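Hi C.,

You asked whether I'd gotten around to modeling the 134-residue construct. I have! Everything is below, sequence then structure, no commentary in between.
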Amino acid sequence: MNTGSCHCKKVVFEVQEPLSAVNLCYCHSCRHLSGAAYSVVARIPKNAFRMLKGKESLHIYESSTGKFRHYCRDCCSPIFVTVKSQPEFVRIRLGVLDFNPVVNIVGHIWVSEKPNWHTINDQLPQYAEWPDTI
């Protein structure tokens, strides 16, 4: 079973592979809400995501209009993101997966907001904001 969980294990969910291609996001919101140089998120169909326990432990924060970030209320682990304009998808935080998924990292987005203390050391495409292909 492909599960993910928060740090305190009060929230547990299951995902079905395959995961979408992944862009590393350097936008201001993702950096502040993850505490890292970029966030790593894969988009999956909503019907490929199932909460196993802890739905009552989720806190939902609307970080920008129509973008909802779901966190564990107790340990504050970021679990997933939903977007009002794409209700058929869930965006999973890869750092909370309890298995090693097959991941295809295809690029870097919002590089215009990348912190100067982080260096990109690969040859993947870099986009100032959103590429037209997402």
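If it helps when you're writing up: The first helix runs from residue 28 to 34.

Thanks,
B.
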